[in-house]
User: Fold this.
Amino acid sequence: MYSKDEISLNEMIFYGYHGALKEEEKMGQRFTVNFTGYLDLEAAAREDNLEKSVHYGEIFKIIKVVVENERFDLIEALGLKIIEKLFSEFSRLESVKIEIKKPSAPIEGILKNASIVLKRQRSDFEKK
Assistant:
């Protein structure tokens, strides 16, 4: 169940080395990431208090570290790692949606990008 409130970071651009092909591992490429976090922002709004929300600058930093410093064959795995890190760092996040776009996907043809979207709730990880 997604909370009625959300916080988003849109079109973040990072350089990483993700991909199943050796060329992608060697040369790297740009990745665009969209984040939406679902949480109750009522207290933060009423009290004008950052401690009742999540600091989106810190969210940006975590996503940047994972994309730029770790390596995955699949952007699906990259997305899941981002979500795991965000849940571990921000207890107020109830659910997260991550979209990762790969503008230079190695496909013979013309396309804007290849992308994945992962949606997870905190409870998905607490069951394990």
The first helix runs from residue 22 to 27. The chain has a mean pLDDT of 94. The radius of gyration is 16 Å.
